[in-house]
Amino acid sequence: MGTFIQLVIDGLSTGSIYGALALAIVLVNQATGLINFAQGGMAVLSAYIAYAFTQIGLPVLVAILIAVVVSFFIGAIVERFLVRRFERGDPDTAVVVTIGILTLVTGICAWIWGYNNRQFPSLFPLDSIDVFGAVISIRSLGTILAIILIMIVLQLLFMRTKLGLALRAVAINPESAALSGLPVGRLLMVGWGLAASLGAVAGSLVAPQLTLTPGMLDTALVYALAAVIIGGLTSPIGAVVAAWLIGVLENLAAVYVPFIGFDLKIAVPFVLVFVVLILRPQGLFGRKVVVRV
């Protein structure tokens, strides 16, 4: 029982890393209709900004809050001067642009801070507690609770607030939104800014567990995209639940399924993606889109 609980908690902790990025991807998609491959790089840049403020003596919480604000403006500027030129054109071109931004941001981080591993201070205590023989890190529990809180806030934003409804309207049909009097350009900037701020939180939560490097979220971004596909592009709750599912099933399959083991556990999320795309293409929690012709 202790081993099982340990695997589940570790899986939830790892899944929370994927879920943090998945939430930012969902946020950008709901605000602009794009899949943002640059989200991992922007989260890493935000984590480096927070790290820089901790190095001048600021408490880690204050440094993260400053990074969140700075990241909002970075995200808004990226949308206004780079992404906007391609948003309403060919979707494939816009995707390539976000990949290019990912490469650019990663290169900037490496140029400024180098490729050496840097230890980011943890927002939570490093102590552990014992639950039925399983050693559970307080940092892991804190990360899980933080992701749950962010997930709830995003769900309420999109479903219960005027800003969230406006962002969704702009993403679905910008022409009709503009005719309705919505400031489309401003809302697109806000959407990217909010996603960048969320990336700052995600990067700051993840960096203490992975150590801070320019490419620390490259693998996590792949898992986050898998979580978005499984959970649904329209559902923050679905993205996080899918990320947790990936993390837990990976751990359980590695230990309890002999032919998978630790070498093949990376295939677990992609098998899930394959099954979900066949049975429910909109994702487990996604909404089916109906197009009138």
Automatic annotation (TrEMBL):
It is found in: Cell membrane. It is a multi-pass membrane protein. One of its GO terms (biological process) is amino acid transport. Its main location: membrane. Keywords: Amino-acid transport, Cell membrane, Membrane, Transmembrane, Transmembrane helix, Transport. GO terms for molecular function: transmembrane transporter activity. This is Branched-chain amino acid ABC transporter permease.
